[in-house]
Amino acid sequence: MLPAISVSGSNNVLEGAPCFDSGASITLVNSSSELELALTNKLDQTITINGGTLTLKNDLSLDDSAVLSGSGTIDVNGKTLSLHGKETDWATTLTLTNAGDIELHAKTNLTGTWFFGPTEAGSESRAMINGNGNILELGTAGIIRVDQEVGLGLVDIAIKGIGDYANKGRFILHDVNSTLSLSNTTIVLDGSVSLTQGKMLVHGGDCSIITGSHKLEFSDTMCLTIDGVTLWYDPLSTPDIQNIRRGADVAYSDDGINIDYQNNGSIRVTSAGAGADIIYDDATNSLLNNEVIGSGRIMNFRGNNSATLALDGKGYAIEMGRGTDANDCMTIAVGKTVTLSNVVLRNFNTDGVSLGDATSYLKFGSKVTIELGSDETIDTFKWWFNGTGVANSPKIYGKGFTLTLSKSNSLHIENDVVLSLQDVRIAGLTDIKNINFIGDGSKIIARDTQFVLDGNYSFTKGSIDVYDSVSIEGIDHQFGMMTSGTLAIKTDSTLLLDRSVTFTYAAIPILSAPSGSKDGKLQLTMADATARLHLNGCNFYTSWTCPTLQTGRMIIEDKVTLSSSGRKVYEGIKLDDELTIEVLASAVLDMSGYVTYA
Fold first, then answer.
1. What distance in Å separates the CA atoms of residue 429 and residue 451, rounded to the nearest whole number?
2. In 56, 417, 535, 556, which residue has its Cα 20 to 30 A from 157's Cα atom?
3. Considering only CA atoms, which of 338, 240, 244, 333 is closest in space to residue 291?
4. Do the strands 539-542 and 502-505 form a parallel or antiparallel pair, or are they unpaired?
5. Going by C-beta distance under 8 Å and a sequence separation of 6 or more, which residues neighbour residue 538?
6. pTM of the model as a whole
7. How far is the C-alpha of 400 from the C-alpha of 469, rounded, in Å?
8. Apex 184 CA angle, 179 and 187, nearest 5
9. What confidence tens digit (pLDDT) does each residue in 552-591 have?
C-alpha cells in the first residue's frame, strides 16, 4: 500500500496498478512539477495539480471517487481520458494539450475552464469530447476555450448554459483557424451568442440549437459550415425570429463566408414544413417563417384579387423537396405574375415550379438568393431578375453545381439590375440560350464562376465584374464583347480564356463617357497590378475598337494568338508599360496586326 505522494521536478512516472492507503493523495508541489501516468487500473485518488503537468502514457479512467484538484496542465498525449460515472463538478482551469478523446459517462458541470491547447501535430490534430448522450452543463463562467490551430469535436452530447455574458457559459475560439465541429450535438442557449472568429463545422449527424427566444450569430471572421446534414433550431414556445443569423441583421442565408452550406447541408427551424398547403390570394404577402414545400405540400399563388402578386420573404427560406418530391410544389395560376423578394430559395429547380400558361410569370426581385441543390437546367421558363442596386442584387449560389441554359433568354436581367453569380458553372451558353442583358445598366458580378459556350455568344449590353476566379470555356466557340459596358477584372482576381476559345473585342464607343474614354478602348479593364488576364491556348481578336490594357498581369500559356484588325496604329491593341506580360514555359505568343507596347 502506498502512502501519500509528493511530486517535484520532472521525469516522475507512476505506472501499473498501484494501491494507496485510505485517504492518501498525490500532490504536485508547484508549476514545475511533472508526473507521467501509465496506469492499468482506474484512478481513485485525489491529484492536486498546483499548476504542474500530468502526462498520460496510457488511457486513463477516473473512478467515481477520483478528484483532479487545482489548475494545471494535462498532456493527454493522444490518449483517452474517461471521466466519472457519476455527476461531477469541475471548477478549476485545466489546459488540455495533445488531447485525444475526453469521454463523459454522466452529467458533468463545468464552472471553470477547459482550455484545449496546442498539439504537436498542429491543426491536423483533433481533440474530441464524446458525451455518450450525457449533458455538459456550463454553469457560471464555465468556458470551453480552443487555442489557435486547434480543432475540438463535440459528439453525442448536450451542451447547456451557453450565453455571451460573464455569468454564462461560453465557447471561446482564439483565431480564425480554431475549429469547433459538431455531430449529434445539442446546444442549449441561455442567452444570445455572437461568435466572431474561428470555424464551426456541423457534420456527421444532425445537430440542434435550442435557441428559445435567443439568437446565435456568426459574423466577422467566423464561418459556420454545414456539410451534408441539417442544423435544426428550436425557438420553443417563442416566435421564430430566424434565430440563427449571419451577422446581426441577416437571416441564415448562405454567403459562403459566414454561413456555408456544403453537400446539401441546411438550417431548418423545427416547425418548418408542417401543415397544409400554402395559398396566397392577396396582392402583397409575407413569409412568417421558413417553409419546406414538396409535392405533398404546395405553395399556391392564386391571386384572386390581383393579376400581380408580391411575396416578401422577410429573410426566411423556402426549401423545395428533392427529386420527384419537388415536382410542381410551387404553382402560379393562369395570367398571374409573382415577384419574390428578400427570400432564400433552397434546392431551387424548374421542375418545382408550375406556371398556369404562357401568361404566368415568376420574377426574382431584390435580395433573392437561389441556391442550387444539384445540377439544374433552365428549360421550361426563363429566370427573370428585376431586383435593383448592388446591395439588393439577386443571387445564384451554385455550390459548385452546373446550371445549363436550354431556353431562349434563359437568364433575363432587367436594366439597372445586378445579378450575382457565385460558385456556379453556367453551361449551354449561345446567342439564343443566353444571358440576356436588357439594358446598358444590367450587370453580372461573377465569383468563382465558369461560363461554358455551346455556340457563339455576343455580349452586346451591360457589364460583367470578375471576382476571384472566372473562366470562359468552349472549344471552337466565340465570346464576343460588343457592349458599351465593361468587362472588369477586380483586385486579386483572374479571368481565364481557355483553350480554343476566340475572344472578340468589339466594344461600342461610349458617347456619354468622359473625354478620352469615348473610343471604346477602355472597356476591358484590370483594377490593379494583382488583376490577371490568363490566356490559355486561345485566340484574342479585336476590331478597330482595340483595347488598351493599362495595368494588371497578362499570362500567356500554350499557343495564344493576339490579333488586331485595326488599319492604323491608333486602332491597334495597346499594352501600357504598367501591364506585366508573363509568358509561361513552352508558351507561344503569336501577334498580328497593330500591337504597341509603351
1. 7
2. 56
3. 240
4. parallel
5. 497, 498, 499, 500, 501, 502, 503, 560, 561
6. 0.66
7. 13
8. 70
9. 999 999 999 999 887 777 777 888 889 999 999 999 999 8
